[in-house]
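Following up on my earlier message about nicotinamide-adenine-dinucleotide. Here are the inputs again, as you asked, copied directly from the submission form:
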Amino acid sequence: MIKSNMLDGKVVIVTGASSGIGRAIAIRAAEHGAKAVIVSDVVETPREGGEPTASEIRKLGAQSVFVKADVSRKADNDELVATAEQFGGVDVMFANAGITLKTDGPEVPEEDYRRLMSVNLDGPLFGAQAAARQMKALGKQGSIVLMASMGGISGAGITVAYSTSKGGVVVMAKSLADALGPAGIRVNAVAPGTIDTELLRTSPGIAQASEGFRQRTPLLRLGKPSEVGDAVAFLGSDLSSYVSGTALLVDGGLLSVI
Ligand SMILES: NC(=O)c1ccc[n+]([C@@H]2O[C@H](COP(=O)([O-])OP(=O)(O)OC[C@H]3O[C@@H](n4cnc5c(N)ncnc54)[C@H](O)[C@@H]3O)[C@@H](O)[C@H]2O)c1
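Thanks, got it. Here's what our run produced:
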């Protein structure tokens, strides 16, 4: 695994970081030199676990704590970002948490639709608001990265609600980039393709479609969570200092071909 110092000295927050891509983002942030990584999730042990992830990060030499926060609740985002003060304030906010639905599609039930939107769309907005407020207060020219998906750039009938939420995240990043740019704060989205995680395996429609996606992907394989971690580390770092308002596809080329 390639290591670097591109996040040297940075204080990083990752939501939904107890498992899957979020966990990989948090660990890769430490491997790319972050000073502190705040590992956050709605529950401590969805799968790999928040405390074990923070402990792994401490072994890599970065400071790390686990903070429980439900991203759909504005107050939880505010409290989460406040915990970064002990490390000097947040430099990089990775709003990664997101869910899929077993009931997605054109007839998605209202309750499920609202729950998905509250996590996938409200979550990144509240997280970005809290982070930007603290960055401005501390005079930090930080970076905010919102988790979209290739499903937010191209639609799919099996993920009507999910794709709608992720498309919203792409435009949210552009709008916030405009609003926060004058303060020196950059906002980008990352749009992964088919990444081999539990979310993929436990979403029946997506799991079924993923073999087809794999065959059509120019690189002929699914992505690894750590590969998304590396892409967002770049967006969080000063190496991307003139990159704002974009949605970076990390999809092995899948959306680039007919
Ligand atoms: N796996 C893929 O192929 C893929 C592709 C594109 C985008 N994504 C996106 O990447 C992100 C991470 O997905 P993943 O594949 O690692 O799935 P995952 O299920 O492993 O991780 C999602 C994490 O979010 C947490 N979470 C759920 N609701 C939350 C809430 N209300 N508040 C805080 N945390 C909450 C879960 O506990 C979990 O740890 C999601 O936003 C997903 O939409 C995944």
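One observation from looking it over: The pocket of nicotinamide-adenine-dinucleotide is lined by residues 15-16, 18-22, 41-43, 46, 70-72, 96-99, 119, 147, 149, 192, 194-195, 197-200 (CB under 6 Å). Hope that helps, and feel free to reply on this thread.
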